[in-house]
Design brief:
246 residues; binds NADP nicotinamide-adenine-dinucleotide phosphate
Length: 246
């Protein structure tokens, strides 16, 4: 049975993951910043079968609060054995290009705050020699592109951090999963229109994530075809890549 902690639990993808886990009678601790939404989700997840559905309110970008938050987590759910990260923001690339503050904020929201919490979680799981970590990064982290390299560089940093963490924690049997979705139809991307054939629903992405966690995979692209799309994108030589407007 999973005793799971979900950061950014109000995310459309995280909500679908929680529903799958609730049906399978797991214990869930939701962490997010919107109390009303978290309360509603907990009620819904209890009805769907979760054997524990509780929440903690936290603005995860405030890294100074992470030690206190981690203490609260440990007293709210007994020996958590799964930590899922779904928090993130999609910054406006053009605005970031004109603002150091917005760029740094985007890097904090999409990499530093996850890395901060992962550092605390890793130390605890390393001692316990058991558990699983699953973090949503993005295909955007695989290659810097002019249209979204601030977000992409944060996700790329996260991926590299997870790679090292996986290497370290593999020695004690703790799995670290890096989740790389392509386009998902969620509130984060509501402003992007039209949505074509490459777009996935959060339900599908959640199913892929749950399967990858169960199978203790290291990296999952979701949907699967993004592995091949990104293989092509990272293989394009720099002199040709510079001519594109991706
Ligand atoms: N949608 C895509 O196309 C796509 C593609 C690749 C990767 N991803 C990644 O997938 C993950 C889930 O995103 P989504 O698509 O499900 O979008 P979403 O529904 O907008 O979810 C993003 C979540 O992050 C939470 N969050 C952001 N900043 C936070 C903070 N400082 N403290 C606490 N919570 C915070 C949001 O909370 P609020 O509900 O309070 O705003 C929201 O629950 C993200 O990491 C995103 O980068 C998304």
């Amino acid at each position: 049975m999973y005793r799971a902690v979900i950061f950014g639990a109000t995310s459309a993808v995280a909500e679908q993951i929680c529903r799958i886990y609730a049906q399978d009678k797991n214990k869930l601790l939701l962490v997010g910043r919107r109390e009303e939404a978290l309360k509603e989700m907990c009620n819904d997840l209890s009805i769907r079968g979760a054997t524990q559905a509780e929440y903690l309110v936290s603005d995860l970008s405030d890294v100074e609060q992470h030690e206190a938050l981690f203490t609260d987590i440990q007293s709210s759910i007994d020996e958590p054995n799964l930590f899922i990260f779904a928090n993130g923001t999609l910054p406006d690339q053009k605005e970031c290009e004109e603002s150091v503050t917005k760029t740094i904020e985007a890097i904090n929201q999409n990499a530093l705050c996850q890395i901060s919490l992962l550092t605390l979680i890793a130390a605890a799981l390393e001692k316990r020699k058991t558990g699983s970590i699953a973090v949503i990064s993005s295909v955007a982290g695989d290659r810097g592109r002019m249209s979204n390299y601030v977000y992409g560089s944060a996700k790329g940093m996260l991926t590299r951090f997870l790679e090292g963490l996986r290497h370290r924690l593999s020695k004690v049997g703790v799995n670290v999963l890096d989740i790389k979705p392509g386009f998902i139809d969620t509130p984060m991307t509501a402003h992007i229109q039209p949505k074509g054939a490459l777009w996935a629903k959060p339900e599908k992405v959640a199913q892929d994530i749950v399967k990858a966690i169960d199978k203790k995979r290291s990296v999952v692209y979701t949907p699967w075809f993004w592995r091949w799309i990104m293989l092509i994108i990272v293989s394009v030589p720099e002199f040709i890549f510079k001519k594109t407007k991706l």
